[in-house]
Design brief:
single chain, 117 residues, mainly beta, 7-stranded mixed β-sheet, 4-stranded antiparallel β-sheet, 11 strands, 0% helix, globular
């Protein structure tokens, strides 16, 4: 059974930082592209950042220079360090694991991030 379990969300003031973690089980973690997506109320889910098995990284333009994605294959965990948070970063953040060529795609349950004073 595949499980992706996010943690680290919460309420933070503008300009603050949070670190999200996603622990994976039931997959060969090192072979998957891992990503973070977010969905704000009334909006579509959007890609925030992704890191491939070869550690190639892609960021949404809106988070470049503020967010950093990383992975620890030994711990089967992907991280999202979020700095200089803005109110518009408020959303539910979802962890994703995918192997497009194999048609495999998995989601976590999401963690709420609220940026507000």
């Amino acid at each position: 059974q595949v499980r992706l379990v996010e943690s680290g969300g919460g309420l933070v003031q503008p300009g603050g930082s949070l670190r999200l973690s996603c622990a994976a089980s039931g997959i060969i973690f090192s072979t998957y592209t891992m990503g973070w997506y977010r969905q704000a109320p009334g909006e579509q889910r959007e890609l925030v950042a992704a890191i491939t098995r070869n550690k190639e990284i892609n960021y949404a333009d809106s988070v470049k220079g503020r967010f950093t994605i990383s992975r620890d294959n030994a711990k089967n965990t992907v991280y999202l360090q979020m700095n200089s948070l803005k109110p518009e970063d408020t959303a539910v953040y979802y962890c994703n694991a995918n192997k497009v060529d194999w048609g495999l795609n998995y989601w976590g349950q999401g963690t709420q991030v609220t940026v507000s004073s």
